[in-house]
Each structure stands twice: as structure tokens, then as C-alpha cells.
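Re-run with default settings, no changes from the original entry. Doing this only to confirm the output is reproducible before filing.
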Amino acid sequence: MHYLSAERLSKSYGVKPLFENITFHISEGDKIALVAKNGSGKSTLLKILAGLDEPDSGKLTIHKDVTVALFEQEPKFDEQLSVLDNIFHVKNPVVEALRDYERIIDSGSKDPDELGHALTRLDELGAWEHEAKVKQILGKLNIHHLDQMVSTLSGGQRKRVALAQTLIDIGFEHKHVLLIMDEPTNHLDVEMVEWLEHYLNQENVTLLMVTHDRYFLDTVCNEVWEIDGSELYEYKGDYENYMEKKAARIDSQLASIDKAKNEYRKELEWMRKQPKARTTKSKSRQDNFYEVEARAKQRLEDNKIELQMKMNRLGGKIAELKKVYKSYGDKVLMKGFDYTFKKGDRIGIVGKNGAGKSTFLQILQGEEQADSGKINIGDTVVFGNFSQKGLVIKEDMRVIEYVKSIAETFPLAGGGSLSAAQFLTLFLFPPEQQYTYLSSLSGGEKKRLQLLSILFKSPNFLVLDEPTNDLDLPTLAVLEKFLSEYQGCLLIVSHDRYFMDRLVDHLFVFEGDGFIRDYPGNYSQYRIWQKDEERKEQLKPATPAAALPAAEPPAREKKKFSFKEKREFELLEKEIPQLEGEKAAVTEKMSSPGLPFDELQQLSSRITEITHLLEEKELRWLELSEYIS
């Protein structure tokens, strides 16, 4: 059934149309990603569908049995209430029973009567399935201290609480649910993003979301919609298919424009030859001329940031960290860390929130002091720091004034320079927008300006802390291209796995308790290795056989194979070695130098499949082997 239907929706801000006369349907089971440049109306469209905004024209119909749930970029809470009361805000007996139970558990109450009453109430309502789901959501999103007031939470904590609230809310809905999500992965660490992927795939949910995380998009969604030039284009399939189809569409439009230009020249020549008094027939042709003219003058704006920056020269000595220790109270972030940076280093930093990633960046740049150890930075190093703090401004000013306060011109690698205005235009700030005040810019525009202002200083060591948040996919693709050709050192903290896989050669993995692993490979390769290690650990016996006291095993009836089970066991004994051999071959191929990125992606996907298959088949082999042990 159609959950939602929109006919000829239009919305403008001032004279700028965001989208015009767009028509679409969302049906049960659809999982759709909405992409567009910043300022194209993505968030506005989501709010219209959720009933928080009105279109200028058009008709929106939502099925009477459908509940629309919206997860926004800027969560709205009752600031006077605790995390617990905001999460369990729905008036519902099961919700209230769970809220009381969670409050008792979180407070550490030892009153047996109070806890007993709460448990009895959950039993009566049959709420244990909901309780297990709530526990999973709160645990995976690292939400504790439920009595804390939401007004005291950081931006990242607020985002995670809002996500938990949304997921728990839809779990109590008995109607059909259309879940609308605006950038759900911002402020989540990579493990949380992977869990959310799995959760949304397991749940029977109809989904429309805006995201810039391409791996997340591919895993969760089966359709991509794009707002481009105030029109809506729909593409079935994954992100790669969307890119292919979009390229074909642009080629087709360019061919149509070229054809219209030729027709326009002929019509213009005819118009100039006509006498002043025209017949009805020529009047009709004149009207047609203006239609052709409009098509011929159509511009396809697919802006790209193309920049060959002149970088400050890096000397032989870049940065050296020796036996660096850092703690905050009992929390150890770095325990004797050693590393010497080399020219061309491209390093990704991963780890759970709070593991010390941002602190590490601050220590490297001298913004924070280590407890002990040596940090030696080369004389030629010029850091470019893209921090999560965003633009740092003392007062509101116009965009062009802000850039000129850094420098008037930008030197180019091939000689010459760009003026501040030219540089802004390259970064998708057209002349009319350069006189906009900073306070009027969107979140994505501020991020783009922040990046621009850093590059304007020609750094040779870029430090990027979550650079992908609030950037649209077109800008991300351009940023990736620029960084892939960047000749200096690159240090990136990001939860965007696609972004990391494209740009880094090895990882600093913050594993907790001050231990930082230097892993030789990108993030996808690391996760394959990590899961493989976890699987090996699970297969180890809990206690060494030598440590067990000698004892006669309890007598038990020996199970017998059925014919079908015997055949299955024999097949498993053949399939497991074959899969292990394929895994070894794929792993070896992945380590080959100069492997194309697309092929590396395919191999990474295949090795993930093999690992999952091996886990399933080895577990089943262990179960069947009990029959003959």
C-alpha cells in the first residue's frame, strides 16, 4: 500500500525555488535515501512530509493507518526533564512500566519490594520483549546516567538520546510506521553506525532518510532520490547505480541542450529576416522560438572544486612522539605512545567516543599538554586544523570579509594566485552569496567555509576531525578528490567509512585504556581482521584443558545422525576448507600494491561474506560434531 503520496509539491524561499511540482509515492517496505546539494531543500521536504512545514502548493496524502516519525538534525527535548523522562515520553502503560523499571535499575536501588513490584508489572503487561529492545538500544548508543538533565548534555549526547527516543517510540507503534531520518549517523562512532545499519535492516520499517554516509546508504537503502535543479529524480538500486544513472542523465541533458542551441540559431536567423507585421503562422513560430531559447540557454550547474594549491615545503623532520602518556583522572587515553610521522603519511584515527582521539590531535598540535613524553614538531610544519568546533569568529561579518581577514590572495602551485573572491567562487560561494553574513549560512555552508579558510593558509599537515558532518554528497566527492591528490601529511578522524577507505593507508585504532594500535590498512580491512580475531577468540576453550580437574564425564546418551544430518556434516567438512582457502587468497590479493579502489571494494565485500559464511558453517559443524563425540 502507499504510505504517502505527494502530487506537484512546490516550495520556495524568497525568489529561490527549492523544488517545483514534484510528485512521488512511498510504499510499505521502501527504504529511500534522499540526496542533494546543501540548500536544495532536503530537510525542508522531510519537515513537510512530517507535518512540521507547509508546501507553497501541491497535495500531500498520508494513509490513515500510517504514523510518521521524524528524527531531526537538531533534536527537540523538554529541557526541564531527565534523559529517562524524555526517552519514555509516550503515554502508554508499557512505556510507563519500562520507565519505572529503568529508573530503579539506573539508580542502583536495593529495595526488593520496589524492584519486585516493577518486575511484576512488566510480567503482567508482557513487556519483556520491549525491555530487551530498550536495553539493546540504550547500550549500543552508550546512553547511561538516565537521571541526567538533557539541558546538561553535549551535542553528540543529545543526538544519541534523540535517536534512542525515536527508535524506542516506533517500537511501541502498532500501526504502520514511516520513519524519516535527517543525517542519523552524525555524532555516532563507527561501531554505533554499524549497529544502526543492522538494526534498521532487521526491523520491518519503511524509511526515508538524508545521509552522506555512502556505506550506510548502500547497506540500508534500496532506492536513491535526488533533488537537482528543483526537480526530483528517482533511481532504484544502490549508490553506485545512482552515480551511473545520474551521469547518463547529465549526458542526455547536455545533448538536448546542444540540439536546442542549433535549433535556436536557426530560429534566431529566421526571426531577424521577418518583416514587422507577422502573420498568425509566424506568431506561432515566434512563440516556439522563446521555448527553444529557454532550452538552449539552460545551464547545468555541476560545480567542482578544482584546485592545485601551493603547499609550504615539508622538511625532513615532520613530527615525532616518544613515550607519550595522557590521562584524565582514572581514564587513561595514551600509554607510552610512539610514532614518527613521514612525508606523505595518510592516517585514519578510529575508536569509540571518549577514547581520546580528539585529545591526541590537540596534543600533536600543541593545544593540549601531555602528562609526560616528548613531542617534537619540525620547523617547516604548518598545521591546518579542521576541528569539530566549527568556524571561530569574534564577530559577525560578511563571507568575503572573513576570508580577506585571513589573506587577500591564494598562491597556486603553477604560479600566479587567486583573489579571495575567486577562491570563494571555486568553493561554491557565487559572487551574490559572498556578501552574506556568516550568521545566515547553513550548517553545511559554514563547514565548507571553515575548510576553505584552512586551505587558504596553505598547510602541509592537514588534521581533519569529523570533516564530513553536515557536508552534502556532491561536496564530499569533491573534497575526497582534492584530498586524494594532496601532497602533505593527512590525519583524519571520521566515522564515515567510505571517506576513510578512499583516503588513508593505515590506522591509529584507539582500543581503550591508553592502547593505540597501528594497523596497516584502511577501515574495511581492519574490521575484517577484527571480526576474524573475535571469531578465533570465541572458538578458544574458556579454560585450558590442563587447568581442569580430572573427572569422569557424566554419562550421556549418544545422539545419532539422521541421513540428512550425516550428509550435511560431510558437506561442511568440504565447504569450510574451501572457504578458508578462498579467504586466504582474497586476503593476499588485497595486500597487492596498486590495486584499483573499485576492485579493493569488491574484495572487501567478498571477504566479509566469506567470514559470515565461515562463522555460520563452523558453528553448525560444532553442533553436528556433538553427535559423534
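The longest helix spans residues 239-273. Residues 399 and 434 are 5 Å apart (CA to CA).
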